[in-house]
Amino acid sequence: MKPEQIGKIVQIASALEVSGYPKPGNVHRTRDFDDMVFEDFIISGIVIGDIFTELAERTIENKENLSEIALGKTILDAVSETNNWVENNTNLGIVMMTSVLAAAAALSEDLTSLRLNVEKVMNATTVQDALDLYDAINLASAGGMGSQGEYDVNDDSAKQELIANRQTMFKVLKISAGWDDLACEMTTGMPIVFTVGYPTYADLRRTHSMNYASVLTFLTILSKFPDTLICRKYGKEMGQKVSDRVSEVLKHKDDDNFHDVLVELDDNLFENHLNPGTSADLTAASIMVYYLVKEFEKNNY
């Protein structure tokens, strides 16, 4: 796949995810937060496109030595470029997920090879990738990776420990996988994205609008997997409670008043500061896979 197509698909996935409404608990086109607004996310998705195109180009050039593609630097550069345009962390999780998919897409020709190459890309990560990832997390002022003990991103000595113990980006994310679904996805071949998110979105797009497909994919993921951002902030019990509530809401997806039910849930989560941000990131990655597959199909026609 051409690198410029991959860059555009990252932009498309970012825009479609945040545009879905009413997407309960998150910023969307009819819901702003006090510290970040819908347009911040649109800008964030636009400004990272070139960085992902360059990653795809490097991946093709270094397909025989994937440790040279600088995956961690891509994440850091994307967060840094985002910070040049918006004031808050709008897209660290999306950048992490889509960077792996972008590199894998540059090596792939279909859905099967894409998933295999996700694992190859992650297994080839280096200590420098881990260092760059830590810098990206700190630049974005985001928590949740390594903050529960070993290699705490908030510990000034953590980077020295990474170097001393030769901890690659894959290894350090594996440590975080138990409490962060993004880290788990990136180190296990993205099972949520490939077996739940993408199939759900692709199926819905056959008969429904882009907006409906985005929102329902988000809700489906959240109903099955308690959001780890909520779990870290408020505990696993609250995370499960939100997922159970979403499961109940999905029972009404064919009702005439489904939109009103979603608005009510959105209001409730917003008022209680329950932000399913991890589920949003997984949704963006799922949408990206959909468009990558569409591009594969065009090229193989």
Written account of the structure:
The protein has 301 residues and is mostly helical. It is built from 16 helices and no strands. The radius of gyration is 18 Å and the shape is globular. The relative contact order is 0.15.
Residue runs with pLDDT of under 50 for 5 or more positions: 143-147
- Cα end-to-end separation: 13 Å
The number of E-state strands comes to 0
Please provide the ordered H/E string of secondary-structure elements: HHHHHHHHHHHHHHHH
Class computed from helices, strands and strand pairing: mainly alpha
- Biggest pleated sheet: none
The number of helices is: 16
Helix content class = 55-70%
State mean pLDDT (0 to 100 scale): 94
Hey, roughly how much beta strand do the residues contain?
under 5%
Q: Nearest-angstrom radius of gyration?
A: 18 Å
Global geometry: globular
